[in-house]
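Write out the 3D structure for:
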Amino acid sequence: MDDRESVVYAEPMGLMDSLKQLLTGEVEAAGELKENLERSWSADLDRKEAELHATPSEKIDSLQDRIEQNSSFFGELRARMAETGPIPQVDDTDTPPEPRH
């Protein structure tokens, strides 16, 4: 028996097999995206329904929570601006930018 006869050559993947594999991956990715969107929309809907059925005192508490979150965000922003200035320099030079005319 000749060595050449004992070698089995693999068939190259056909165009249709490649296309099928590509589309299968795309379908799986689209399915995952759909599930993520459904979860996100469901959570948003649940939150909006809870806001709709909230008592006035619960609405006030919710607004106060939002105000505190925004205040802390702006407090951090003010502290960062105090350190770097309103427009931080992006290069390492110590020269200020040229004024615009």
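The mean pLDDT is 82.
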